[in-house]
Amino acid sequence: MIWISAMKLPENQHLFTVKEVGDFMFGEQKKDQTNMRKIYRLIKADLIDCIKDGKRRYITRKAIYKFLGEDE
Fold first, then answer.
1. Is 57 in a helix, a strand, or coil?
2. What contacts 24+ positions apart, CB below 8 Å, involve 36-42?
3. CA-angle at 31, arms to 35 and 51, nearest 5°
4. How far apart are the C-alpha atoms of 30 and 11, rounded to whole Å?
5. pTM to 2 decimals?
6. For a tag on the chain, would you pick the N or C end, based on fewer CB atoms within 10 A?
7. Is residue 39 within 8 Å of 21, Cβ to Cβ?
8. In angstroms, rounded to a whole number, what is the distance separating the alpha carbons of residues 28 and 38?
């Protein structure tokens, strides 16, 4: 079960980093990169679509809401 934090996605932003998505979906972590690892596992399992730019990965707002089963 995925816990959605109270954090809202900015309305004027359409691409998000893995860290931003992890903080949005699982709450902010201060020390380690646990949330980022969770998101990378979801990407690797093809559950969340991402855009690759070299080593960086970006996730669209549409992909986040599709994974969560919500309409934009």
1. strand
2. 42/67
3. 35
4. 24
5. 0.78
6. N
7. yes
8. 13
Is residue 1 within 8 A of residue 43, CB to CB? The reply is no
Q: At what angle do helices 18-26 and 61-68 cross, to 10 degrees?
A: 30
CB burial class (10 A; 0-12, 13-18, 19+) of residue 20? Answer: buried
Amino acid at 1: M
**Please, which pLDDT band fits residue 7 given cuts at 50, 70 and 90?**
low
Residue 59 sits at φ, ψ, to 5 deg, of -120, 130
